[in-house]
Design goal:
By secondary structure, this protein is mainly α. 76% of the residues lie in helices and 0% in strands. The protein is built from 6 helices and no strands. The chain has helices spanning 2-20, 25-41, 47-66, 72-81, 87-112, 126-139. Helix 1 (2-20) runs antiparallel to helix 6 (126-139), helix 2 (25-41) runs parallel beside helix 4 (72-81) and helix 5 (87-112) crosses helix 6. The radius of gyration is 15 Å and the shape is globular.
Length: 140
């Protein structure tokens, strides 16, 4: 049930990102609050372990933002998702979403013949996160 809720939340984030080109902060904060509640009540993880789990999440997601691979909303979404998944599945989600995005960009490059790297950070990334999440559910 919790994985279905996370899929619905990712669908909502994808909707916001595609419609307004931005993931609202209230949406991310709500996801963080639900994630903390989920990890404490369902996963039986304490507050100190939740805080410690954010350290690798930050050090993995921040360079993606710094080098403009992801936008700030995508990074906040990745960090919020960390409360729902173990570190292994969270790393798998990041890897799969980056590979799916790279495959779509490669297809675009082959079909259209152009890929504007100057506006790379304007591409929407949350659909790839959602697709990677469903791949993660099916395969693993």
């Amino acid at each position: 049930m919790a994985m279905g809720i996370l899929g619905g939340v990712l669908g909502g984030a994808t909707f916001f990102d595609l419609k307004t080109k931005k993931i609202p902060n209230f949406y991310i904060i709500g996801l963080l609050i639900l994630g903390v509640f989920f990890s404490i009540s369902i996963k039986k993880v304490g507050c100190s372990e939740n805080c410690l789990s954010l350290i690798p999440a930050f050090f993995i997601a921040y360079p993606l933002y710094y080098y403009r691979v992801l936008g700030a909303g995508d990074v906040k979404l990745f960090i919020a998702i960390k409360f729902y998944l173990t570190l292994y599945y969270w790393l798998m989600l990041i890897s799969i979403s980056l590979m799916v995005a790279a495959a779509f960009f490669l297809i675009r490059l082959l079909l259209i013949g152009e890929l504007n790297f100057n506006s790379f950070h304007y591409y929407r990334f949350t659909p790839y996160i959602l697709l990677a999440y469903f791949i993660l559910l099916v395969v693993f």
